[in-house]
Specification:
Helix content: 25-40%
CATH class: Alpha Beta
Distance between the termini: 19 Å
Radius of gyration: 18 Å
Order of helices and strands: EHEHEHEHEHEEEHEHE
Strand order of the largest sheet: 1-9-10-6-5-2-3-4
CATH architecture: 3-Layer(aba) Sandwich
Number of helices: 7
CATH superfamily: Vaccinia Virus protein VP39
Bound molecules: S-adenosylmethionine
Number of strands: 10
Length: 260
């Protein structure tokens, strides 16, 4: 039985945990507090699988790019504590109003995850909670400038170049490593981008940044991008454009899993 989760291996055949590196997820889970309003959110099944597999009850899950709070709600419903950061104060207020903070705490901080000062605040929170560190980090940053999230110049979606993006993202990983328990796990959820006729393998660049910081790569999971109706209406146009040119349409993202 692994020390980092609550599995009962006597019932391993009934486990809901996926163990293959290809995650085809047909539908977004819209139950509970998830409503999918936020453009750029990930589907709840991603944090659910990671939390179940890599944490125990009462562990702390950390998300430095909270967005609409998908990870926070999954942590709460699975009986884990949560700490999250987002650069947009109004999103933090929104998530604060939704978490219940009763049996499991959810600490939400408006701040910049690339800044050490934000992590000094997190260390204070950990001290107040009488905890030394966090047990799982899930990082779902902007995919560089594909979606602009805010006007804040510290927002990773406003970085001026690929290098600036990677430098800033590397700082966020490094800051996270400062609070991640040794031998625990860090996951990066990221997709690639296509610009000026070139495929930019953001996923591989981010993987490289994490490895440069000393993390051990455990898995590369490929996840399909699920279609919504708006996307489906445009699917024919994209297919026509692809056929009349020389590229393939993005249908996948990566979940990069590392051990500290
Ligand atoms: C891809 S979204 C995360 C979505 C989230 N997983 C969800 O399901 O809603 C990226 C988030 O990172 C935030 N962000 C961008 N730069 C940041 C920074 N420097 N520090 C903290 N948050 C940042 C954006 O405001 C945005 O909400």
């Amino acid at each position: 039985m692994p020390f980092f989760n609550d599995f009962n291996l006597d019932n391993w055949k009934e486990s809901e945990i996926w163990t293959d590196s290809l995650w085809i997820i047909p539908e977004r889970d819209k139950t509970g507090k998830h409503n999918g309003f936020y453009h750029g959110n990930f589907i709840p099944q991603i944090p659910r699988q990671l939390i179940l597999r890599y944490t125990k009850s009462n562990d702390i899950v950390f998300d430095p790019f909270v967005g609409s709070g998908t990870t926070a709600y999954e942590a709460e419903s699975l009986g884990r504590h949560f700490i999250g950061v987002d650069i947009q104060p109004e999103l933090i207020e929104h998530v604060k109003s939704k978490v219940d903070n009763k049996n499991y705490f959810a600490e939400l901080i408006a701040g910049d995850s690339t800044n050490k000062k934000t992590f000094a605040d997190i260390t204070e929170i950990l001290n107040k909670r009488k905890r030394k560190n966090i047990q799982l980090a899930i990082l779902h940053p902007p995919y560089a400038n594909i979606i602009k999230f805010s006007n804040n110049d510290k927002d990773l979606s406003n970085t001026k170049s690929l290098n600036d993006f990677l430098k800033a993202f590397s700082s966020a990983i490094n800051n996270t490593l400062g609070i991640l328990e040794k031998n625990r796990y860090l996951a990066i959820v990221i997709g690639d981008k296509y610009t000026q006729g070139k495929w930019i393998p953001l996923g591989f660049y981010c993987l490289n940044e994490a490895q440069k910081l000393g993390l051990t790569l455990k898995s590369i999971i490929i996840k399909n991008m699920e279609g919504n109706r708006a996307k489906q209406n445009k699917e024919a146009i994209w297919r026509y454009r692809a056929l009349s040119s020389d590229y393939y349409i993005f249908k996948h993202e990566y979940i990069l899993l590392f051990k500290n």
